[in-house]
Amino acid sequence: MKPREQILFGGDYNPDQWLSQPDVIDRDFELFEKARINTLTLGVFSWASLEPEEGRYEFGWMDDIFDRAERQNMHIILATPSGGKPNWMALKYPEIRRVTETGQHEVQGRRHNHCLTSPVYREKVRAMNEQLAARYGDREALILWHISNEFSGYCYCDQCFAAFRQWLKAKYQSLDALNDAYWSRFWSHTYTDWEQIQTIDKTVCGLVLDWRRFMTEQCRSFIRNEVEPLRRHSPKIPVTTNFMGVHLDYDYHQLAKELDVVSWDAYPSWHTPQTDSLTSHHSLFAGFRHDLTRSLKRQPFLLMEASPGPVNWKDVSPLLRPGMLRLAGMQAIAHGSDSVCYFQMRKGRGSIEQFHAAVIDHVGHGNTRMFRELSSLGQSLTQMESVVGMPTPAKVAVVFDWESSWILDAAGTQHNTIKQYLETVLAHYKPFWDRGVAVDVVDAKADWSAYQLVVVPMLFLLPESSAQRLAEFVERGGTLVTTYGTGVVDETGLAIAGGIPGHLREVLGIWVEESDALPDPCRRRIKTLTEAKCLSGSYEARHYLDVLHLEGAEALAVYDEDFYAGSPALTRHEYGKGAAWYIASRNDERFTSDLLGNLVKQLEIPYSLNAGLPKGVSAQTRESEGRRLLFLMNFNDEVVSCDLGSSLYADIETGTGYTGLIELEPYAALVLRERE
Ligand code: GAL
Asked: Higher confidence at residue 676 or residue 68?
């Protein structure tokens, strides 16, 4: 991997839309310099410009951009163009177009709609990548390969199903084994010939789960096919693809194995009102997705795209308030990004994204509020180069698991419209974010050895091996917190024989006999037992209320209403050198905050800032070799006071010293170094 010493600042650039106006491209490069833009992501959707006819390549325009970039000491992230297939190809080779679930070949158009299995498409992609890699693989400006764009969606064509059947045969070896795994005697769904697997029957939950695993595998092998010529020609250039945060089509943990660097595209709906869902708590949800992306490899990531202003594809897209552009960029860096990149550099004049914000607007000059804010951020980033490569020191892991979410989604349960998996994970992430405690967001296959506290909300699918590793984590002194809805099915999607919480029963010291489902707005009170130090008074539970038996654990809170009054609502079990907690009901925010907040205190898990944070202020740190940077970010649209305690800090941009009580301007983002 080429060493990078700069925070990458720039983003998608589509000069092939402006080839008839070279003066526009001249102007762009002047403006890039002005804004301290050091990185261009090139060619994301340029297939038709690079290969206008089959086998006839046109690289002149791209050569020119490389030359210009190198003259200005800029970096290029070179994309492979497979995210958008050209018309000539889609019409000549209709099999590369996706087939819908109902068996219809899609008409050509839009993007991100190629068949991942199609040998023809794979061959075309490989031929294109061979050309790109041979031509640009050793250009000085090239720092990173960007594979395709935002992989998503499934194809249901015959080629995909043939490959799926092969995958199933390799996995199960026999139809008997497959039928057992799918419990397919139910409704007479037994498969008596592999060829009968031609559709994805949503009532066969194990099949749905396997289909999503298979599609992840197809995407992985599609990426491998793309990457092979790139690595052959340019072994030192790392490879990424741009993820989308919480996007559930493919398991990002699996895709990440094919990549050197993980990156993602962040489009929070800044300044839109918060609803009941934590996904509309924009700063929190953005922080969660940054953490999740970083945790895919547990190394710094890249913010590949963000919008410098309103987008064109949401219902209503407010202007970014002054300061928000800087704050959103700093938030990414605070959570472990080594870049702030945007979609896109220059706003096109036509097609669906003509009114999507861009660094250079239709007006064509840099005298706009947004360009000024962006240039000022560019200036700030030049003062922060020491941050590049700095890790994020998390002692807490929160589990968000793709496979578990897939099968929970597929399963028909008593809680169908109130499952809320993501929401539940966010509710258990929030107490840490509120307190400025660093968190890794990992899946159930993670290595727990780096953590003191592992929080596993609603892990519906719990393989025995994961339960075993969690038990070992607790035995060695770790603290595990898990909740209702955990340990229900195994990796085939079959209910775990022996009941809930499956293979965690011994470590948790409980057995869940049944679970109530309360529709909104029903609530049930729970009360703290006097000896519980982590909670106080009473709380409210909703949606999920497990009725459980203690098998060695102690109850710290009980239900206070209904026929299960007196039954445990929170349990703790000492196991080996550690402890395992079970939250039996979906509780109000205060409960989760009290419990997890107290655990942080008891376990002496470090805070980014010791003195506590005002509402809407986020604190994150990046640390290495005794160097520690504190990012203090005010997401409120008003001034707030924030207590830095007795430590002395210096602003790394201005050198200004800070200690004690300070005022943070609306949308302020400070980057501070602790002074000796
Ligand atoms: C992203 C995509 C970009 C652009 C952008 C607009 O999802 O990768 O190509 O379309 O959205 O917001």
From this structure: 68
Domain 7-156+219-387, classified CATH 3.20.20.80, yes or no = yes
Please identify which of the residues 51, 150, 403, 491 carries the catalytic annotation: 150
Which residue's C-alpha comes closest to atom 3 of ligand 1?
A: 343
Instruction: Give 343 Cα–ligand 1 centroid separation in angstroms.
Output: 7
Question: Does residue 674 carry a catalytic annotation?
Answer: no
Residue bearing tokens 């194995």? 257
Query: Per-residue b/e over 601-627, b at no fewer than 16 CB within 10 Å?
Result: eeeebebbbeeebeebbbbbbbbeeee
What distance in angstroms lies between residue 442's CA and the mean position of ligand 1's atoms?
26
Q: What is the CA radius of gyration of the chain?
A: 26
Question: Could you tell me the pTM of the whole model?
Answer: 0.98
Residue 533: pLDDT band by 50, 70, 90 thresholds? Answer: confident
Phi/psi of residue 253, nearest 5 degrees: -65, -35
Q: Give 111's pLDDT tier (boundaries 50, 70, 90).
A: very high
Which candidate, 471, 297, 489, 278, places its Cα nearest to that of 404?
489
Candidates 3.40.50.880, 3.30.470.30, 3.30.2140.20, 2.30.130.10; correct CATH number of 396-602?
3.40.50.880
User: 305 catalytic, yes or no?
Assistant: yes
| CA-nearest residue, atom 5 of ligand 1 | 343
CATH number for region 617-674: 2.60.40.1180
| Number of the ligand 1 atom closest to the C-alpha atom of 267 | 12
Averaged pLDDT for residues 284-305: 98
In this structure, the residues whose C-beta lies within 6 A of any atom of ligand 1 are 149-150, 265, 267, 305, 307, 311, 343, 353, 356
Q: CA-CA distance, 156 to 248, in Å (whole number)? A: 18
Of 217, 258, 305, 373, the active-site residue reads 305
Cα 150 to averaged position of ligand 1 atoms, centre (Å): 8
Q: How confident is the model at residue 517 (pLDDT cuts 50, 70, 90)?
A: very high
Q: Return the pLDDT at 531.
A: 74
User: How many Cβ atoms are within 10 Å of 225's Cβ, its own excluded?
Assistant: 18
Looking at residue 75, its pLDDT comes to 98
> What pLDDT does residue 5 have?
85
